[in-house]
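@here heads up, posting the sequence + SMILES for the zinc ion run so it's all in one place. Ping me if the SMILES looks off, I pulled it from an old spreadsheet.
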Amino acid sequence: MPKSKFLPRGRKDRTAVLVDIRPTKSAKACDIFLQVRPGKDFELITILRALIKDQKVSEEAVAETGVSLEQCNDLVDRMKKAKFGCMFFGMGLSMTRGKHMNSAALLTLATEMNAFTKFVAMPMRGHGNVTGADVVMRWQTGYPFGITFNRGYPRYNPGEFSTVDVLVRGDTDAAFIIGADPGATMPQPAIDHLARIPTIVLDPHITHTSKLSRVHITTSVAGISAPGTAYRMDEIPLPLKPALKSPYPTDEEVVRRIKDAIAKKRFWMPEGEQMITAQI
Amino acid sequence: MLRITGGKIFDPANGIDGEVRELCVSDGKFAASVDGGRTIDAAGMIVFPGGVDVHTHVAGGAINFARAMTPEDHRRTQAFIRSQSRRSGLGGMAPTTFATGYLYAGMGWTTVNEAAVPVLSARHTHEELGDIPIVDKATCVLMANNEIVLDLLENGEYERAKNVVAWYIWAAKSYGVKAVNPGGVAAWKWGKDAKQLTSAIEGYSKLTPGDIVTQLAMICDDLGLPHPMHLHCNNLGAPGNISTTLDTLQHLEGHRAHIAHSQYHAYGGDDWDEMRSETVQLAEYFNTHPNITTDAGAVLFGDTVTITADGPWQHLLYKLTGRKWGNLDIENETGCGIVPYTYRPSNLVNAIQWAVGLELLLLIKNPWQVFLSTDHPNGGCFWRYPEIIQLLMCADFRNECLTKLPDKIKGRITLPELDREYTLYEIATAMSAGPARALGLHQKGNLGVGCDADIVIYEEDDDVARMFSHPRYVIKGGEIVIEDGDIRATPDGQEFIVKPSYDPGTDEFLQPLFEDCYTMAFENYPVEMERMENPDIRDCVPNS
Ligand SMILES: [Zn+2]
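bot reply: prediction finished. Complex structure tokens:
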């Protein structure tokens, strides 16, 4: 862990607290581990929000979270004494009972902590360059994911236009998948639809999705044999510098060639207005 | 090749004020004459050099965070529909990249300066700028809260600080230096701010914001950067901050500088209830100090999203509004805060801000010193500039708007007493020739032979706002990009960068410091030249 002017001893100057439903490997790497009962994240966060403002909380409510009042008070005390606090949260919060309400509660706690000291919160992202996809989609379309272009301009509605929803409804008649393996993680109806329609996969490896696809184009691995940029989860861009040569083309090259070939075909949208001044 | 005949030319860089002249364009630049090519009959039309935005936020981590925070605005705003030659996009408070290019070009602006780039995420900013079509771009890199630079200044190592700043500018592939709330953003890492120019900054024993202001301005001058230090003063937005601003200006005595969005720095009174305009004092300073330029940072009523590296101010704004708040901290360098905001004419503070922006534009006599800006998107969105032009050119319209402000504003603003109306020549100066000169981009904002053929042609119209929102033609680098409201071409713009010279030992000095404090490898930090799309390295003229 990096040292700094203000934390000259690196890790030793930092306190790490893990909150999870079971003691994972990360617990060993942390100074304090708090075991919360499954599905009680929202309650625990709300109790912490009350405690930082010196509000009373009922003993029973605290007990239900699996974390003791003493532990909560100790945590609040440490948080307030910190010079710079950071909360990281992941799918244990955003994909369990309460979902985005849990994330919202945590973000509110971080916001409210700024009345006492500097505090921030940041989602932990999944494998690969998820953040990069999110960042580029935002600058090009305004939205991070769940986007449709079916009217010729970007529209956003997670739950309607997210990949899984489009597939489950059977709303798409072709799929083009780059560097992802939905065949391994998505619900069966979505996977069934991918197998039904022409699915094209660009991937350096054989995957669940590549096996059910009509076309699999093997591409070189970004960061090993293909250059590019990966965005760290705090949205800092890191250059990828290839160390090896690959006989396979890069994703970028394949996409570019497909795009050029499509450009030679008749354009799918009818000629119309260049712009609409208001969408509703 | 292109010839434009019969138009009334407004070219302040060459002192041409509405004369009917012919313009010839060859190879993207103005020429003395051309043979063949298209001729545009501009009889009855008005010809300006393409607009230049000296201070805007259109690309990078901060505006992209603002986009993420405002899907409700994207959903209601204007949408550009894709075609075979044009990408889709959304306008609104924080437009997407392709739309940003279309919207700027659509109202005749052809060069923009992205005013706040952290070195650590400069690669991101350049990737976004590469996706903004048509306009040319420059960037300013954030330096006034960089801990390595601050440590050097604290220890009195000016020469080394100068080398390090030059190294950073080149590492970020930037064009100029931006200072935001000097010392205050560094202090914000501790939840603190820096409001006094002469008090030591949190975490330092003697370094003050005033020291940073003076020495960074000196560094920019000594490196011979084409654009002087671009300064966002301490104490932004706070009642009574006029004293901080004047104090800051005194720290700049003898140097060039550009003061960003002066509107936010010209308030009197001790608290929000007592707040009043202090533009007379501030304008007087500019009127007697031609070494300093500024942009208005004018406010327009309506919805927007505020984004600034000034993290502590944004936390205060969040507390005042109770609306969404986003905060980013960039390790060792800077930070940023984001808060959606609505300026209302019925709100006394907002009404004063609206008046202050216009007062500065009207009270600073020399249009070569004060430029059109809203600090997009902070005071309003850039695509609303024609509304400001109308307010500047029509005193009657201004007076009509004044009647909608709260009664309590009487005695707190100067605007009702001002009857100045901008001429077309002055508008051309404040929107193009002036900012181009302040940026040191002498090939811009100038219709002279050899300069870049960036032109905007308006159909003369009594409705000033309509005239400036809908140019008849916009020409970028000699190519017609907008004709009658239609996007005709979307060429890639250039990016202006500089390579100030620095001691070759600077890498060796920085590497160990960097490896101690940063979470990125030193080798990965500088933006590689290969990643720049259409870079144009401009000259520095160092002080010898
Ligand atoms: Zn700004």
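MO: Chain A has twelve helices and twelve strands.
MO: One more: Chain A has two domains: 10-123, 130-263.
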